[in-house]
């Protein structure tokens, strides 16, 4: 009996010694479909689209997890896991995201998986940390819903590059405006019936007139960039091939103002060489769809892009060194904000709320 009493005393003593002296940090665990959570997630999606260097805009599909941590001296940090879906809007397309169509399963959909930390301070949301990757739906799943649909093809596939060359040549041949150069191949699919290659690619206007170009290598992109986006199908036929291409031209983007040493803006000076150039042709409307084809054409081989079938979101933030938080502190990409340390005991928040949240479109 004395031994048992001694053991109980030792156990109580050990428990008192092992108990933490400082209270842990407490996080809020919101519902994944809570309006405040969704507001933070939408800011995260806007951040993705604002920093994409190529490919297509993404839209929110589902919020998987959310924790809200206190941030000293003020504010809160939303720790989010979200899923996105690729839309059909090219990244430079001015169409508002709300009006962009989500790419369907039959078109070989692409899903994004992202981790974000978003600061909320004084009612404003600011992204502190972002990490994403994306992947296409499996070929097996596409075949289940559409056995004859085309699958994504590598962008440096020989047939893909040839289809883009032929389509761009056909567009420039029938254009009455600027000569356009290839910016990137954005998407490609091999279609089984009829045997054809479908491609989507981005272009930009040059200082040459399409009808007068003799040496494309001497054409330079305009200072005020005008981009376009093209969709084309190259169909294989006995004795040749037919191409049908549609290009939509976006409004010209003004040249960003340059800063003088004192911080004031100055207008971009026009050099002698620039003044000698002909003004950009106005035959093409700022935003218009131009359709040509079917035609038979040949074109020089374009430079091959990387061996990939889609624009992976893991490359979305290349070249973005840091962002400024609402408190004025610089939070470098890849650096987790100082909201909690693994060595600190974290007290559980309220009872877990429903997560993951609702699926807005479909799940891959």
Written account of the structure:
The structure is a single chain. The chain has 364 residues and is α+β, with helices and mostly antiparallel strands. The chain is 17% helix and 34% strand. It has two domains: 21-149 and 309-364, Nuclear Transport Factor 2, Chain: A, CATH 3.10.450.10; 154-255 and 274-295, Nuclear Transport Factor 2, Chain: A (Roll), CATH 3.10.450.10. The protein is built from five helices and 14 strands. Strands 5-6-7-8-9-12 form a six-stranded antiparallel β-sheet, with helices on one face. Strands 1-2-3-4 form a four-stranded antiparallel β-sheet. The chain has a two-stranded antiparallel ribbon with strand order 10-11. The chain is flat, with a radius of gyration of 27 Å.
Which tags fit this structure?
6-stranded antiparallel beta sheet, 2 domains, flat, Nuclear Transport Factor 2, Chain: A, Cystatin_sf, cysteine-type endopeptidase inhibitor activity, alpha+beta, repeat, single chain, disulfide bond, Kininogen_Fetuin_HRG, 364 residues
Strand-helix topology:
Elements: H1 2-18, H2 35-51, E1 56-70, E2 76-90, E3 110-121, E4 124-136, H3 139-145, E5 151-152, H4 158-174, E6 178-191, E7 196-209, E8 227-237, E9 240-249, E10 258-259, E11 265-266, H5 272-276, E12 288-295, E13 322-324, E14 330-332
Antiparallel strand pairs: 1-2, 2-3, 3-4, 5-6, 6-7, 7-8, 8-9, 9-12, 10-11, 13-14
Précis, in short:
This protein is of the alpha+beta class and about 375 residues long. About 15% of the residues lie in helices and about 35% in strands.
């Amino acid at each position: 009996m004395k031994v048992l009493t001694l053991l109980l005393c030792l156990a109580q003593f050990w428990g008192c010694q092992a108990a933490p002296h400082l209270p842990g940090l407490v996080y809020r665990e919101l519902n994944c479909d809570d309006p405040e959570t969704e507001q933070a997630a939408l800011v995260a999606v806007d951040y993705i689209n604002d920093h994409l260097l190529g490919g297509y805009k993404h839209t929110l599909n589902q919020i998987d997890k959310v924790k809200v941590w206190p941030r000293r001296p003020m504010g809160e940090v939303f720790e989010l896991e979200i899923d996105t879906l690729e839309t059909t809007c090219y990244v430079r397309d001015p169409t508002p995201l709300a009006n962009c169509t989500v790419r369907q399963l039959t078109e070989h959909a692409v899903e994004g998986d992202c981790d974000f930390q978003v600061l909320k301070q004084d009612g404003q949301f600011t992204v502190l940390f972002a990490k994403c990757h994306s992947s296409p739906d499996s070929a097996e799943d596409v075949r289940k819903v559409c056995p004859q649909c085309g699958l994504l093809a590598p962008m440096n596939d020989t047939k893909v590059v040839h289809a883009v060359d032929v389509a761009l040549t056909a567009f420039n041949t029938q254009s009455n405006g600027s000569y356009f150069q290839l910016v990137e191949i954005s998407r490609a699919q091999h279609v089984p019936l009829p045997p054809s290659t479908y491609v989507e690619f981005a272009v930009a206007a040059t200082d040459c007139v399409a009808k007068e170009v003799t040496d494309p290598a001497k054409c330079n992109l305009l200072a005020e960039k005008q981009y376009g986006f093209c969709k084309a199908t190259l169909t294989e036929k006995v004795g040749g091939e037919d191409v049908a291409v549609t290009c939509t031209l976006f409004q010209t983007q003004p040249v960003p103002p340059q800063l003088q040493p004192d911080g004031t803006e100055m207008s971009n000076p026009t050099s002698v060489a620039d003044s000698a150039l002909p003004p950009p042709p106005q035959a093409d409307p700022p935003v218009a769809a131009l359709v040509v084809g079917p035609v038979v054409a040949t074109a020089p081989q374009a430079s091959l892009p990387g061996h990939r079938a889609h624009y992976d979101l893991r490359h979305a933030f290349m070249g973005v060194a840091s962002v400024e938080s609402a408190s004025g502190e610089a939070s470098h990409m890849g650096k987790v904000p100082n909201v909690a340390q693994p060595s600190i005991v974290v007290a559980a928040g309220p009872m877990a709320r429903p997560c993951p949240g609702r699926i807005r479109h479909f799940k891959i």
